[in-house]
Amino acid sequence: MYSTIQELHSYIAFAVLGLLLIAALNAFTGIAAKRPFLKKDRQIALIALAFAHTQFVIGLILLFLSPYFEAVKASGMGAAMKDSTIRLYVVEHPLINIIALILITIGWSKHKKATDDTTKFKKIAYMYAIGLVLLLSRIPWSAWLD
């Protein structure tokens, strides 16, 4: 079960990264072109948001089924913090990704309250881009690309 969820988490990660990149680029081009914020712009951002939240839920399930989590339970958090691999999977990756998801969600929420099109694009562009950078910073690349 763990390996199935891990594979699902990896596949959805590709979709999340791609969709966040598309949403951020779409918003930046909307700012540059000074075009109106259309329904399709909202849908692109919403789909990226939905995939990011889905990925988060799958990641939480994966975390609690993980052998790394079991190692933390067995040896304690102090020992886990001394092991860089366990620390990455149990502390750094989840924490930074939660922060990224919060920023993406804030960008979505703020864009809904904005009244002009440029502000809507800016809220999505900047918050989604920062979230994307944070997500990219904590991906365990060596394990992910195996």
TrEMBL record:
<feature type="transmembrane region" description="Helical">
    <location>
        <begin position="86"/>
        <end position="104"/>
    </location>
</feature>
<keyword id="KW-0812">Transmembrane</keyword>
<feature type="transmembrane region" description="Helical">
    <location>
        <begin position="44"/>
        <end position="66"/>
    </location>
</feature>
<feature type="transmembrane region" description="Helical">
    <location>
        <begin position="125"/>
        <end position="144"/>
    </location>
</feature>
<keyword id="KW-0472">Membrane</keyword>
<protein>
    <recommendedName>
        <fullName>50S ribosomal protein L27</fullName>
    </recommendedName>
</protein>
<keyword id="KW-1133">Transmembrane helix</keyword>
<feature type="transmembrane region" description="Helical">
    <location>
        <begin position="12"/>
        <end position="32"/>
    </location>
</feature>
